[in-house]
Structure formats: C-alpha cells, structure tokens
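Q: Got a minute? One more chain.
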Amino acid sequence: MPGIPAATITSPTTNARVKNSVLVEGTAQTVGVDYWLWLVLFDYDTSRHYPHRGPIAISSNGQWELTAFFGSSGRYDITVVAADKNANENLSLYQAASESSGEFLGLPNLPSGCITLASVTVVSS
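A: Always. Here it is, folded:
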C-alpha cells in the first residue's frame, strides 16, 4: 500500500496579510490512487472548515496552485489535507451542494480520513 502523500504551501507564508482572495501555491509528492489533496480554509471567527474547489490538480512536476476566497476579514488557516476515498467523497458532496445552493456554510469538522499535510495562518482584510 502506498504511503501518505507529502505537500507544502510555498505561498502565501505564515502571518501574511491577504485580500479577499489569494493564489495559494505549493508542491506535492507521492500522491497515489489512495488519496486526493484538498485545500481547506479554517475561519477562526466561525470555527468552521471551508473546502475549496477540490481535489487539487497537480502538474507533472509536482506543482499546484489554487485561488482561495475568504468570506470575511479575519484570521484563517490555509491547509492542504490528504483525503482518503470516503473523505474525498464527503468533501466533493459538500462542494457540490454548496455550489448548487450558493451557500458555503462550512463544516464543523473535517471528515474522518483527512490528514493535514501543510498549513499556514494568514490574515484577510
């Protein structure tokens, strides 16, 4: 069985000040068929997790980028998680329902089967 993937966030960096959106860039290694990478924002004001347009598409050289959107100003963790099959399905269902309704209410907890690989804290203004 393949191991757990590895990922980094190269931009933005911890404690960066960002606007209502930011291009998040990073690298990923050993992402096999058992895991999918997702970008998730954690909003400190609401204590909710906001999955973003996943799973992340990774280029052949291991680079990835995705624009993160912030619902309000405040402090956020930008996190890359590895999601197993069940977690990926749950995140995909959340994303589809949110896009369909136009309401992104966030999740109180990440689904079981998500493993945090990288995280930075930013302040949105």
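A: The beta strands are 6-11, 16-18, 21-29, 36-43, 48-52, 63-69, 74-83, 114-124.
Q: Perfect, thanks.
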